[in-house]
Amino acid sequence: MKSDGEKIKKNKGKQKIEIKKIEENRYCQITFSKRKEGIMKKANEIRALCNINIDLIMYSSSGKPYYYGDSSLKTMKIALSNEQQFH
Measured at the alpha carbon of residue 32, what is the angle toward residues 86 and 47, in degrees to the nearest 5? Predict the structure, then answer.
């Protein structure tokens, strides 16, 4: 501890990563899985904070769609279900 009561950081904390394409498919899928949950959480937060309707569709590298949205916005859900029929 410092003399004025401040704590000394023992680690660097959250590090910023370089954004570049992930070449290995396995790592790409793992990253997508983790970040997909994060972006859905952020979509939910902005929906709650700003009282807005939101729809989000993401497609994995294999073409599988993932959907997050308000139940009142049925158009996107219909489009998504139609899209799944073609994959």
Answer: 85
The domain tally of the chain equals 1
Each residue's pLDDT tens digit, 34-66: 899 999 999 999 999 999 888 888 888 888 888
Give the phi and the psi of residue 58 in degrees, each rounded to 5.
-125, 145
d(CA 5, CA 7): 6
CA 81 – CA 40 distance, rounded (Å) = 19
As a whole number of angstroms, the distance between CA 81 and CA 19 comes to: 32
Q: Does residue 33 fall inside a structural domain?
A: yes
User: Which residue, chain included where needed, has tokens 């660097």?
Assistant: 12
Distance CA 63, CA 18 (A): 25
Q: What tokens were used for 18?
A: 């370089």
Q: Which structural domain, as residue segments, surrounds residue 62? A: 25-85
What residues contact 68, with CB distance under 8 A and at least 6 apart? Answer: 40, 43, 44, 54, 55, 56
